[in-house]
Amino acid sequence: MELEYRLIFKATGFFSLITIGVPANVIILIIFIYLRFSEKKLLPSNCILAMLALVNLMVIFSKGVPQALHSVGFRNLLNDTECKLISFTYRICRGMTICVTCLLSCNQWIILAPPSKTWLYLKQGVAQSLPWIMLLLWFINIAIYPSCLIHVRAIANYTTSIYTLHLEFCNHDFMTFESYVANGVAIAFRDFFFVWTMTLTSCCIVFLLYRHGKRVQGIRSSDRNLGKTMEYKAARSVVLLVTIYVALFGLDSSIWLYTLTISRVSPVISDTRVFFGTLYAALSPIVIIKTNKKIKTVLTCRMNKNLIASIDTYTNSSF
């Protein structure tokens, strides 16, 4: 009975994540692709958001979908090659969500920084070098996980070492203590470096917004709306994204640290950690859609066109 309840909650959680996350991230990608071709360019911040939507989508497909299928009874779906690809894709894209969110926060901080030659140079440098920065982030994450392509295998009747991560469909056997520790150190260094960086830049953004709010308090009420510029609103959405990520990362890390203190990890704890580790991929696109002006404009225009088309169809059929 306890197992049935666990699987019901697991299925509900992961299928909800897929139902929300996949359409939301696809909408973001389609709109930004449309804007790229219709307006011939995208702002650096929107390019970063498009990349975030892409890696979110890949996280859901590589982790959320297998977890959802496992919860409804599917077993031994993947062979060795598929396990390697799924594991490799998930780990790289999970790492990219950290890096891209950090890049988004740093970019917004640079945009809001006081005007000076140094900050102007940084703004221009980020805009011009953004493809190379993205490529560097992909390279960093790919370089951390070569073991996924070597040591990950489908679950079967074979002997594994004590340095093995037992996943739902696959086993990741690091074989040696040195390999296990090196992989863990590389991941921990990457995670905490980018999380602390995004936290620091978000705190700087909050300080700049606070100072900006104090500055416009003395302005007469008819002009106060001037303080709420596009950059101001974009900065709030970036801070919200970072806050969500840091909160989920904190829950994930806390559960992981707890598992180190016990000899036998309950499946409920493992499922909970995986869910929180994947939840950002479904929550962040909702925040982006609700706060991004370009996306809201395109969606509003599309809804108005559909409404007008429906009215015209109804009018023509009536007469």
From TrEMBL:
Q: Name one GO molecular function term.
A: pheromone binding
Residue ranges constituting the G-protein coupled receptors family 1 profile domain according to the UniProt record: 24-288
Q: Which topology term describes how it sits in the membrane? A: Multi-pass membrane protein
> What main location does UniProt list?
membrane
GO biological process terms on file: response to pheromone
Does Heme count among this protein's keywords?
A: no
Example of a GO cellular component annotation carried by this entry: plasma membrane
Question: Please, which domain of life does this record's source organism belong to?
Answer: Eukaryota
Per UniProt, the keywords (alphabetical) are:
Cell membrane, G-protein coupled receptor, Membrane, Pheromone response, Receptor, Transducer, Transmembrane, Transmembrane helix
TM annotation in the entry: 12-35, 47-68, 88-111, 132-156, 192-210, 238-260, 272-289
**Can the keyword Cell membrane be found in this entry's annotation?**
yes
The signal peptide stretch is none
The compartments listed are: Cell membrane
User: What InterPro entries does this protein map onto?
Assistant: GPCR_Rhodpsn_7TM, Vmron_rcpt_1
Question: What family does this chain come from, according to its entry?
Answer: Belongs to the G-protein coupled receptor 1 family.
| Record protein name field | Vomeronasal type-1 receptor
Tell me the lineage of the source organism.
Eukaryota, Metazoa, Chordata, Craniata, Vertebrata
